Amino acid sequence: MELSEAVPASAEEVENLNAAVAYLPGGAPLLRALVPDEDPNLEPTVHVYSPDGHVVPYEIVRWFMEQVADEVERCRIAFEQGEPEAVE
Question: Which domain of life is it from (predicted)?
Fold first, then answer.
């Protein structure tokens, strides 16, 4: 699976997609997840596209995204409570 830079969909594309998707995949991939389908004991890996071509273990990506989700939730709660300084 690949995640590439998103580009806004044209009005025609949005209309044809029933407004379900406002963005479409863009150019070169930013991240690529390799999911091993031959051995269920192997963990997926995530490749970050950069000049060095880093590989990030799946568990690290999951942990990081959980941290991001927690931070998003914390920030949203702070803004709802009128405490934007708590987000800085």
Answer: Bacteria
